[in-house]
Amino acid sequence: MEKLRVISAKISEEVYKEMILRVPEGERSSFIRDAIMDKLQKTPKPDKILELEQRLNKMEKEFAQIRKYLANLELLTYERGKTNPHTFCNDETDHKIIDYLTHYKGATTPELAEYLKTNRWLILNRLRRIQKKSNKQLGKPIIHYYAGEKTGKKRAWWMNEELIET
User: Fold this and answer.
1) Quick check: pTM over 0.70?
2) I need a surface site. Which of 37, 42, 84, 165 has the fewest CB within 10 A?
3) Degrees (nearest 5) of the Cα angle 152, 126, 154?
4) How many helices (H) and strands (E) does the chain have?
5) Element (H, E) at 150
């Protein structure tokens, strides 16, 4: 027989009285032990949950890869100017950023912050999110950062002209 451990549990007076009525005095420990074992049988094991979680993560990665391949195939079949850059916007701020970039073809974060009257860190985070979201969906980002000088601007964000609607 296995080594037994003593535990204590607090139960309500009502449950205790019910147990005294239904379970004979010598069998209460085994009754509680059996009740715990029954409950444990119904509770999934953490390693099973971990295994299922890992399998789900693997499936999500595989689906993301398939989506990216499909997006790459669509890019090969796209004619120039088929993607609407506003589809990657979440709110009005994002739409204003895209409008500004579309009109001026590129901008620095301080320029965008001044235009939108907000701080440049918010703008930077929004630009990165739009870039990441478009890259995930299309396989290529609709905006990109270029640290060098391009049309008189240094360290600016630029629209990817081959992907956006004209």
Assistant:
1) no
2) 42
3) 15
4) 6, 3
5) strand 143-150
How far is the C-alpha of 78 from the C-alpha of 162, rounded, in Å? 10
**Which residues lie closer than 8 Å to 113 by C-beta, 6 or more apart?**
119, 120, 122, 123
Tokens of 98: 């895209």
Q: State the Cα–Cα distance between residues 93 and 127, nearest whole angstrom.
A: 11
Among residues 161, 164, 151, 84, which one has the least CA distance to residue 111? 151
> Residues 23, 26, 32, 38: is their CA dihedral positive or negative?
negative
Enter the tokens of residue 70.
């499909």
Q: What is the pLDDT of residues 6-17, one digit of tens each?
A: 999 999 999 999
Kindly tell me the burial class for residue 128, based on how many C-beta atoms sit within 10 Å of its own C-beta (0-12, 13-18, 19 or more).
middle
Q: What pLDDT was estimated at residue 77?
A: 47
Coil, strand or helix at 9: coil
Distance (Å) of CA 64 to CA 21, 55, 59, 74, 88: 59, 14, 9, 15, 17
